[in-house]
Amino acid sequence: MEQRQLGSLTVSAVAVGCQTFGAPLRPGAVDEVVGAALDAGITFFDTADVEGGGLAEELLGRALRRRQADAVVGTKVGAPGTARPGLSGGHPTWVREAVHASLQRLGRERIDVLQLHHHDPAVPLADTVGAAAGLVREGLVGELGCSGYPADVVAPLAALAAHEGTPLRVCQLRHSLLVRSPALREACARAGVAITPFHPLEGGVLTGKYAPGAPWPAGSRLARATPHRAARWLHPGALEAVAELDRFARAQLGRSVLDLALGWLLSDPLVVAVPVGVTSPAQVRAAVAAAGRRLDATTRQALDDLLAGQGFPLAVEPVTSA
C-alpha cells in the first residue's frame, strides 16, 4: 500500500471510512475489517463524532486497542446539531469538549487529524480556529483539517490556521468520478491544502454493483438507504453512465469500474488519501487492489469525454457560504 505525507504524518493512500461502524457493522465485524485493513497496509482511519452518535469512534477505538501504534486516526467535530444546548458546532468551548469526548471514545491520547466539521457562521472563524490550534499546542491533536467547508471560507480558514502556527493540512469535500466540486478543489489548491474525498464511490454506485433496472443487492448501502439519502447518489443517468464506464474499463484497460474510480482519485495530485466505506475484509482487499492502479492524463480525459458523450452532467456540490 502506497504511503503519502499529510503534514507531519505518513498515511496510506487508501483509508477506511468508518461510517459503516455500528450500522450495519457490529463490533465483531468492525474488528475483522480493521484487522484486515491493517494487515493489508492501510494505516489511516477516518471517522467523525456524529457517526452513530459517537459509536463509530468507540468501535474503532476498541478494534485498535492492541494496535493503536499502527494506526493514524482522523475524526471530525462540530457538525450541526451535535453541540450541547447553548453552544453551536464551532464554539470554542464545544470544540474542546468534543475533542476530549472523542479521545475518550477512541481510547487515544491524541487525535492525529482533527477536521472541523462544517463551517459555523454563528461563531467568528478565528475563535473556532484558535480553539483547535490550542489543542494542537497541547499535544491533543496532530494536524488540522476541515470537512464540508464552502470554497469561500477555505482561504481565510487556512490563513488563520497559519497565523496560529498550525497549518491547515487537509479538506474533505465531495469529489468523485461522477460528482465534482471544482471551485472548492481550486480553493484548496490555491491555499496549499490537500484533499480527501467523501462519497468517493458514490454510495457504492461506482463499484458496479448496481445495474440499471435491477433490484439493489440485499444489504447494500442503497438497499438500506432512505429514498432521500439514495437520491444523493442516484443522479439521473448515473447507473447508465457507470455501466458504460465499466464496459470501457474492461474493454480498453482490462480493469473494473472500481479500478477507474479509485485510480481517478489517486492520480489527482491534490488527493492525499481516499477514505472508502467497507463492510467486509473482502471489500478491504478489493479497494487495496484497485488503488494500486493509476490513470494517466490521457485516460482521465477519455473518461470525462465518455461521460460527456453519454450526456451525463457531472453533478456539482454547493461550494459557497451564501
What labels describe this entry?
TIM Barrel, eight-stranded parallel beta sheet, 322 residues, alpha/beta, single chain
Structure write-up:
- The chain has an 8-stranded parallel beta sheet. A two-stranded antiparallel sheet has the order 1-2. Strands 9-12 form a two-stranded parallel sheet.
- The protein has 322 residues and is of the alpha/beta class.
- The chain has 12 helices and 12 strands.
- The chain has a single domain, classed as TIM Barrel (Alpha-Beta Barrel).
- The radius of gyration is 19 Å and the shape is globular.
- A hairpin with a 2-residue loop joins β1 (3-6) and β2 (9-12).
Q: What does the oligomeric state look like here? A: single chain
- Placed side by side, the strands forming the largest sheet appear as 10-8-7-6-5-4-3-11
By CATH, the architecture is named Alpha-Beta Barrel
> What structural category arises from helix and sheet content?
alpha/beta
Helix amount: 40-55%
Compact summary:
By secondary structure, the chain is an alpha/beta fold. The chain is 42% helix and 17% strand.
